[in-house]
Amino acid sequence: xxxxxxxxxxxxxxxxxxxxxxxxxxxxxxxxxxxxxxxxxxxxxxxxxxxxxxxxxxxxxxxxxxxxxxxxxxxxxxxxxxxxxxxxxxxxxxxxxxxxxxxxxxxxxxxxxxxxxxxxxxxxxxxxxxxxxxxxxxxxxxxxxxxxxxxxxxxxxxxxxxxxxxxxxxxxxxxxxxxxxxxxxxxxxxxxxxxxxxxxxxxxxxxxxxxxxxxxxxxxxxxxxxxxxxxxxxxxxxxxxxxxxxxxxxxxxxxxxxxxxxxxxxxxxxxxxxxxxxxxxxxxxxxxxxxxxxxxxxxxxxxxxxxxxxxxxxxxxxxxxxxxxxxxxxxxxxxxxxxxxxxxxxxxxxxxxxxxxxxxxxxxxxxxx
Length: 369
Ligand code: M6R
Hints:
By secondary structure, the chain is α/β, with parallel strands linked by helices. The protein has 14 helices and 11 strands.
């Protein structure tokens, strides 16, 4: 039940620290690998992998986009991410040494199931990340890692999405461990940082009142743009998807670098632009680039809302509003930066009096292609 929350979505947003902690708990073995829930493939099979595809729909696809950055960086394997509905129709090149990671909260999404069957027909190995024990997708896969979000009732994915991110990180670390870690120190540090993320998500949740306030004031806007670079790009896409599905607002998420290749012509005085700003530490080049993107949209009159890392004092003077999230390694940042965007969409839809848990035209599990 809703435990006193007005909507399931609010309850599920609040459950995220617990959901991440549960998903990480007890997963590491003594050799630094992770413990998968069902494994019908050997360590040797994992070592033989020479290419990774990640296939999913909707929010699960956005989690996959984040995973690509982590897997390529930690494991140094080529990794492609594809929408399940497109995957099999373009005749992807697959064989025994291809690992296909399918991500599905429900485990029953027909597009994803069909992609999985296509991959297995081509002899690829399939690893499923799912939130539903015994669903069709995990049953038909060679290996399974379950997220432990618990039942998600609201149609809009929140805690399931966050736990998919955590599971993707675990898979990346597992591949790195099984195959011989290239950046051993970094991976060990990431494991420790991952363990600290539930506490940091709680901190983000505690500071959400200004975001709610902002969302209530923005109820009259008819569109919004979301931009980011690196892992901020999929977070921008996820923020836009939340706003579309909940607030029935036209929202678009794209890579900030693409602005000047077209979308900047959409900016008028007052157009809301949400910017997911990378950490200024370590990858300062990326940070500089995003700051110049902010200046470009500001110069054309945009109302800029930035999600930035605590201690980032460069961004604030350039934007209308800034929401700070705690420090975390760049690749893990989506676990924190996605949260204000969930709250924002939920509150904006609530201000419009819309059905938060059951938006029009949508189903929780899409079992038709
Ligand atoms: O159950 P799945 O993870 O396979 O579902 C995939 C999408 O249908 C789902 O993530 C959808 O995009 C959500 N409603 C987004 O909030």
